[in-house]
Amino acid sequence: MPDRLLELEKKAMHNEDMPHGLTQSELVQLYKLYYDHTYSREQAKDIKQELIATYQNNAFWEKLFAYHASIRNRYSPVMTEAEKHGCPICKKLVRIFDGRETE
Known about the structure:
Layout: H1 3-13, H2 24-35, H3 41-85, H4 88-97
Helix pairs in contact: 1-2, 2-3, 3-4
């Protein structure tokens, strides 16, 4: 078990407050500790709510990333074509768009 989870498990054994901003895998591990009777029902409920919120937040960002990736996939061939055969302004726009030109 990673050191961080060992630290969290010790906190759980001593019934200490958990830090905010735990990763989803840490929350799953902590929620599992409830079934080992490390946490009370109320503490496990709070951990479960945080786990759900973390999952929903991760799902939102994953969906947003997938959406932007699909947009990039659609314009990528056009940008390649513009860089190969476009006017100087089009070529500069491509360099700015892909981060090669910052000024």
